[in-house]
Each structure stands twice: as C-alpha cells, then as structure tokens.
Amino acid sequence: xxxxxxxxxxxxxxxxxxxxxxxxxxxxxxxxxxxxxxxxxxxxxxxxxxxxxxxxxxxxxxxxxxxxxxxxxxxxxxxxxxxxxxxxxxxxxxxxxxxxxxxxxxxxxxxxxxxxxxxxxxxxxxxxxxxxxxxxxxxxxxxxxxxxxxxxxxxxxxxxxxxxxxxxxxxxxxxxxxxxxxxxxxxxxxxxxxxxxxxxxxxxxxxxxxxxxxxxxxxxxxxxxxxxxxxxxxxxxxxxxxxxxxxxxxxxxxxxxxxxxxxxxxxxxxxxxxxxxxxxxxxxxxxxxxxxxxxxxxxxxxxxxxxxxxxxxxxxxxxxxxxxxxxxxxxxxxxxxxxxxxxxxxxxxxxxxxxxxxxxxxxx
Length: 364
Fold this sequence. Notes:
CATH topology of the largest domain: Rossmann fold
CATH architecture of the largest domain: 3-Layer(aba) Sandwich
C-alpha cells in the first residue's frame, strides 16, 4: 500500500491509484463480512452449527430465523471461507470447521474474536453521534454505546484475564510477593465486567480484592460473574475517589486497559498513590504501542488508532476538561502522568505475549 501514497503531493500514477482503490475495497469487503459475522454470532447461528452440520431449512429451524435469510447467510459465509459446504445431496449442507468454531463460539479461547464483530457493529450505530462530536467537540460517552460495547469489551478480554493473568503476575517476583501477603488488599480500578478482578481473586485466595467502576451495568454484571467468590467486592466509584476509601489501605492497585480512557489520569493516579502503601505496588496495563509516532505503523498501531478515533477518545472527551489521551498512550505520556501524580518514574514489567498489552510498574 505504501507505493500508492505520493509523499511529494504530486499527481499519482495509475498503478498507485489502482492499488489504493483496491486497498479501500478490501477494507470495505472486510467490514461487510465483519457485520455478517456479527449477525451469525448475535443470532446464535454459529452456535447452532457448532455441534452438527445443517441445511438452510435445518438452520432456520434450529436458530428460529427465516429460511430464505438462512440460505443467503449460509451461502455468503461459505463464499467468504468461514463455513464449508457439501453439495453432494439435493440440498447443500453447511458445517463450521473446528478452528472457526473456536474463534467464533468458544468464550474461553484466547482466539475468541466474535466480540470484535459486535464492537464494530456497535460503533457503526453511533456514527451520527461521532460525526457531531467531531464537528462541535465534546464526545460520545461509554454509556451511549450501550450493552454492545460493554459486553464485547468484557468478552474479548475475559479469556486473557482468566487464563493468563495469574501466570503473568506470578512471573514477576516483585509483584507476586506483594499479592501473596496474608490478607493483602488489592484494588482493581475501572474494572468493567470484573474479569481481571476475578482472576486476581482466584490467583490470590488469601487476598481481599475490590473492583471499582463508574459504569453501573458493568458493576452489576461483575457481581453476577463473581457470585461464587467470597474475597471480592464490586462498587461504583471513580478512580479519583479511591483514596477516600482510606489512605494506605491497599497493598496493590491495578488499572487494566483503562487509564487512557480516563479524563483526568493524574488525579486517578494521585488517588491510587495515596491509597496504596509505600511498600505496595501500582501496575498499569495498557496498550503495547510504539515509543513514538512513526508512520506507517504496524497492526497494533493501526488498531489502537482505530479504537481511539471511534471509541476511546470520544468517550474521554465526553467529560468537560478531559486531557483527551486517546488509546495510543505512549510511554512518555504515561511517565508524565505518573510524575505529576507523585510517582518517581515508570518501568516496564517483563511480561511478554499478553495479547497487545504492556504492563507498567509505577515507582515510588
């Protein structure tokens, strides 16, 4: 695609135009097929195909949808390479291959990606609001995106927290030792659906973990998810208010993939610093973006800017006087926030391969 960009601002050649037009078409096709995945996931069509192949008539009966739409969706999915089709009988039979089944239906798999399609569809519904925000300033708050955004965010991160977080934290002695203290107090700020909080509670059963978020439906969902755990509580609370719960109350505090969303990250980090004991730890998990802006970027940079344009920056800017960080919070930006909040610096923890995230330790 780089060849299609005329860096000198002159007239582009015909091949460059064709290449870039093709690049745009590929994105259009991908977007349309992403919406088809959302239809299949939201209507339970993949789940209906997971255990047994089906004809259009059989899928319509299993999933409770119209037969004509069932046929068109099945044929489109097979054409896209998502489903396999067997046309040896009078009516074509479709089945969901194992890899696709895991990616589209297994909520415990690290490869589970169906929530991304729901997130994409949710953003598309808010485009008029986003356009208004771009013209006039302001933003689109997280709550305006509704359950589609809240649930897809929780679902896409859930397997990483459930399967990988305990191992990741245990691999860092400085952090693991603090979390292993008897009756250690741990705060999970901006916890969302609570999967990170729950993972901490299961990994450190002797600890007492408090999950906080300002989104009431997320807190309600988190409480349901943690119904079998006795060492977890969830409360509605802004990160800026954490120290109001008691200074030096906690041995550790975490902010998982949320600091860049907060309108006043310095105030939040300052409150966390006061709430955590001097011999405790403060860990921020955020996006593993590059150190500097150096276009063109890799896929991580590209997806993080896409999140920022459509979700995170508008959410942050919906609060007056927001610092408007955006999803692409580079290390220098985090270091500036940390120092302004009273920390001495920031170091990167040796945790690799945790999706597209990076773990930072805030130093006293």
